[in-house]
Design a protein that fits this description.
It is a single chain. This protein has helices spanning 14-26, 63-69, 90-110, 144-163, 189-198, 222-230, 249-260, 282-288, 296-308, and strands at 4-9, 30-36, 51-54, 73-76, 115-119, 132-133, 167-172, 175-176, 203-206, 212-213, 216-217, 238-241, 247-248, 265-268, 278-279. Helix 1 links the parallel strand 1 and strand 2. The strands form five sheets. A seven-stranded parallel beta sheet has the order 3-2-1-4-5-7-12, with helices on both faces. It has a two-stranded parallel ribbon with strand order 6-15. The radius of gyration is 19 Å and the shape is globular. The protein is 32% helix and 16% strand. The chain is of the alpha/beta class and 351 residues long.
């Protein structure tokens, strides 16, 4: 019997590469096809059993990949998830989050995909209600990244109503773990701190560190992500997925420094961001069988051991922003540190 096919966009990134690993290890009846342009993820993250297509979702004819592989299920993870930076790279943000998703939606409709599983973000909630984010709330994003993801959600739902596309929208939050991109200056705070310490820098915190988040160890979300694609009860549902414990940024940094055994902190000017981001999680338990198994210290210990073994790489820094007005002092360009970096074209990696 021919294998069914799963297509993962952003397969070289954290979610994509780890889900591909999980499917290959646990669902041998499925073939895994992956798309990534390798601008945010790394080729060494990709399982050798993945049929890998190096493509850019904006510039390349992704219809070829769909036509050849005829995927049964699609996981669309490719994105550039830099909430705080998104007001300064608006057009890039909309191209690499909204426009790329529209192309994926078109192909899913054309090829009668059984279900599209899309990873959105808690950024669609904005400030939420008292910092609590529940799937039933009206979305009100406060940055262009959240706006783009919310627009993607709406477009996918329209495709469901008009074209019969089945979908499940997942809103992950603060995902971390082995295979994360720790070389991006603008996203993945835990990875940023690890990079900074490994390179003799102080770990930076925006504001006073009292902001709260729920951190999510990647391995806890892998089987639930699979369930989002194949379970009947997940059809056309929007579900928060990830950690359930509220942790301040300052506390998270203290835990990491405890894991490392050393480290210094530098507090920088506050930025425009949500103060408290605490998602509800019961829906993920009821529909996807989510379990919060890995506490932050255990997850950071595993990630730190991995990070120490990684080769030195150039850090990704934007050579220029679309908008400089209002840019924070710590993101002002320092071209002396990034003269070897190309003009950025980043998609294919979700934090």
């Amino acid at each position: 019997m021919d294998k069914k096919t799963v297509l993962i966009t952003g397969v070289a990134g954290l979610l994509g590469s780890r889900l591909a690993d999980w499917i290959i290890e646990n669902k041998p009846e499925f073939k895994v096809v992956g798309i990534d342009n390798l601008s945010g993820g790394a080729v060494e993250n990709i399982n050798p059993k993945v049929d890998f297509w190096q493509m850019d979702l904006i510039e390349h004819p992704i219809s070829n990949c769909f036509e050849v592989n005829k995927p049964d299920y699609v996981f669309h993870f490719a994105a550039y998830a830099a909430e705080g930076l998104s007001p300064f790279i608006r057009t890039f943000n909309y191209d690499n989050n909204l426009k790329s998703t529209a192309k994926i939606v078109n192909e899913c409709i054309k090829h009668d995909v059984k279900r599209l599983t899309f990873t959105s973000t808690l950024a669609v909630y904005g400030h939420g209600y008292g910092g609590i984010f529940d799937e039933s709330q009206q979305q009100a994003p406060i940055d262009p990244y959240g706006v783009a993801k919310y627009a993607c959600e709406m477009d996918i739902q329209i495709a469901g109503e008009q074209h019969g596309l089945d979908w499940c929208i997942i809103r992950p939050h603060n995902v971390y773990g082995i295979k994360q991109n720790i070389w991006d200056k603008y996203r993945n705070v835990l990875g940023i701190w690890m990079y900074q310490h490994l390179n003799g820098m102080k770990m930076t915190i925006f504001g006073d560190g009292s902001q709260t988040r729920a951190f999510s160890y990647i391995d806890d979300s892998l089987e639930p992500l699979w369930n989002a694609a194949v379970r009947e009860e997940a059809s056309k549902e929007i579900i928060n997925l990830g950690g359930i414990r509220e942790t301040s940024i300052k506390e998270a940094n203290e835990i990491l420094r405890e894991v490392i055994g050393e480290g210094e902190v530098e507090y920088l000017e506050a930025r425009h961001e949500v103060k408290h981001s605490i998602p509800t999680y019961q829906k993920s338990v009821d529909i996807l069988d989510f379990e919060h198994k890995t506490d932050l210290k255990e997850g950071l210990t595993q990630m730190w051991e991995w990070a120490k073994a990684q080769p030195m790489k150039e850090r990704f820094v934007w050579l220029s922003y679309e908008l400089d007005k209002g840019i924070y002092s710590y993101w002002k360009n320092d071209k002396s540190n990034n003269t070897n970096l190309p003009e950025s074209k980043v998609s294919g990696y979700l934090s």
